[in-house]
Amino acid sequence: MAGAEPAILARYGVSGQPRLTPARPDVAAEWLQGRVTAERFAPDVATRAVASSLPLRPRPDATAEMLTELLYGEAFAVYDETDGWAWGQAEADGYVGYVQAAALDRPGPKATHRVTAPASHLYPAPDFRAPPVSNLPMGARLTVTGDAEGAYLPAAGGYVPAQHVAPLSERITDFTATAERLLGAPYLWGGRTAAGIDCSGLVQVALDLAGVPVLRDSADQAATIGTNLGRGPEVANVRRGDLVFFPGHVGIMLDEARLLHANATVHMAAGIEPLVDVRRRIRRDEGGEITAIRRVDLSDED
């Protein structure tokens, strides 16, 4: 994405939102010149995350809220670095914020594979007894560098179990089944991994493995993913894979009655409950109702 707006923002026509615009009063991305006001405009420095997961925060403070997190191998464009913090924009979903610079590295060869297991490890040798170099969450990007050595594939930085990864070109079209593999993952605001995940993170990770890049926040997802079937109490005929949105929340239908969602209410985890119960509770506690039901047609994707 060097020197340009992330493709996902153009795809969904969401440019200009503050959380998706790398602009501060003192510095902004060079590609925003003429569109925003800043003291200087900086070219991006292409980097990638080399931590298992890397929190992205609204300010350079390790105690600040985690907005989202980068996964191992994901790209991040840096526009400013100060006191060990890098400020920039995630390629995957366009989110802007601060990450710890020590957990970034310059990009190597282009990624070829992603992790499809709920979690895996990168080993220094093709041997499960070797202490791992890094943990790898579902969705992590890797560059496979050669043919399998037994049950392992050589990758930049080490070896990964072959059965835990797939080429980036390969789609797991049943994204609901992918989400089911993360059942029980503890709820974590801003999380995107089996170690901790939130509602929109669950949707984003599951659709990523299906080859569908989506935005990070549930409100943006509700406005952009697939086809809107309706909203409110009149909604009917939902089916497996439909995305059900409430104010600030989203879940995936397992069938016509049950919703899979990462929640901080009943489960404090990714769990399953009847849609009617979710609607009743949200109406009672928050005065909210279904805002959209979106249906994803993977045949429409490139």
What is this structure, in a nutshell?
By secondary structure, this protein is of the alpha+beta class. The chain has helices at residues 7-12, 175-180, 199-209, 218-224, 275-286, and strands spanning 28-29, 41-42, 45-49, 53-56, 68-71, 75-82, 85-90, 96-100, 104-105, 113-115, 119-122, 134-137, 141-142, 152-155, 158-161, 165-167, 192-193, 196-197, 227-230, 243-246, 249-253, 258-263, 269-274, 292-295. The longest helix has 12 residues, at 275-286.
What does the model show?
This protein has 302 residues and is α+β, with helices and mostly antiparallel strands. The chain folds into 3 domains: 7-105, Roll (SH3 type barrels), CATH 2.30.30.40; 113-167, SH3 type barrels; 175-300, endopeptidase fold (from Nostoc punctiforme), CATH 3.90.1720.10. The chain has helices spanning 7-12, 175-180, 199-209, 218-224, 275-286, and strands at 28-29, 41-42, 45-49, 53-56, 68-71, 75-82, 85-90, 96-100, 104-105, 113-115, 119-122, 134-137, 141-142, 152-155, 158-161, 165-167, 192-193, 196-197, 227-230, 243-246, 249-253, 258-263, 269-274, 292-295. A 6-stranded antiparallel sheet has the order 19-24-20-21-22-23, sandwiched between helices. A 5-stranded antiparallel sheet has the order 8-7-6-3-9, with no helix packed on it. Strand 22 (258-263) and strand 23 form a beta hairpin. The mean pLDDT is 95.
